[in-house]
Amino acid sequence: MALVSADRLSPASDGPGDKPRFTVVVPAYNEEEFLGDCLDSLMKQDFDGDYEVIVVDNNSTDRTAEIAASRGVTVVREENPGVCWARQCGTAQASGEIVISTDADTIFDQAWLSRIDSNFRRDPSLVAVAGPCRFVDAPWWGSFYTWALFGMVRLMKILTGKVLYITATNIAFRKCEWSGYDTSARQGGDELALLRQLRSRGEILFDAGNPSFTSSRRLYHGLVYNVFATFLFYYVLGYWLHRMLGRSVVGSYPAFRSEARSSGARTRVARWRVERLVIAAVCLGLCVLIGGLAHHFVDHA
Fold it and tell me: Which of 61, 95, 107, 213 has its CA 20 to 30 A from that of 137?
């Protein structure tokens, strides 16, 4: 993808009179393979107002910061590891009235930013505008997963008036309604915790027709890995334990920095051994969860 002029990108500023409409915050850890495409697609937006892009270099050891600087965007460094720390750093330094959270392995169609702007202008009372994400070149089950997940989010919004899930690749919120990320959290802190915070401030719109397009690199580690490891163990169990204990017990899931698909018997066998350990850990965690809930209900019966 060719380098596009960034004339409409606004540098971060301190003066209240020259604030851009939007700040797009992009956390990045060793994302040299994907970051250039992400930033180029942001520069091609047809939005006719001013916006800034902040890339948060979260201790990268590759050319992430160099690639970001070559696009003319603002680059800041956050030395505390973790996506919540990175999003906290970028959002705190944002000059825009509205902050948009996304990821470094994500791209957007040209009207993405304009649609977000139109939603906020149609209803000035909105606190946030969320959208779905779609995986690029995903296996069949990955495409079905996003269709089912965000279809359910849309349905529940219609039935209950509440957005029950947001993706950190596609959430825009008014900075004045934001009180900070939970930097003690791992997975879920930049989605579920942020959602709880924003819902307490006011109305959130879910725009099913304005997706982001994100890398499917994690999906090629297999359906079993993604269901049991990525979702149940690291995300669901990790976030639940953090809510219960007030600190992170389950660490972050491993970072995958390539979209290359695993091949070869040795790789598949090694991966399955890891997945069996993860499945056992998830089952143990779910047993602890069910036991704790049963004990709670017995005590309060």
Answer: 61
Closest CA to 256 of 211, 300, 220: 220
CA pair distance 173, 166, nearest whole angstrom: 12
Write the DSSP assignment of 216-228 as a string of letters: -GGGGG-HHIIII
- 10 Å CB burial of residue 264 (0-12, 13-18, 19+) is exposed
Cα dihedral across residues 277, 280, 284, 287: positive or negative: positive
Cα angle: 34, vertex 41, 168; to 5 degrees: 65
Find out whether 200 and 153 touch, Cβ atoms under 8 Å.
no
106-107 and 171-174 strand pairing: unpaired
Q: Per-residue pLDDT tens for 128-187? A: 999 999 999 999 888 998 999 999 999 999 999 999 999 999 999 999 999 999 888 777
Question: Domain map of the chain by residue range?
Answer: 18-215, 218-299
- The pLDDT score that the predictor gives to residue 245 is 73
CB 87 within 8 A of CB 173: no
Residue in this structure with the two tokens 């850890």, named with its chain if needed? 29
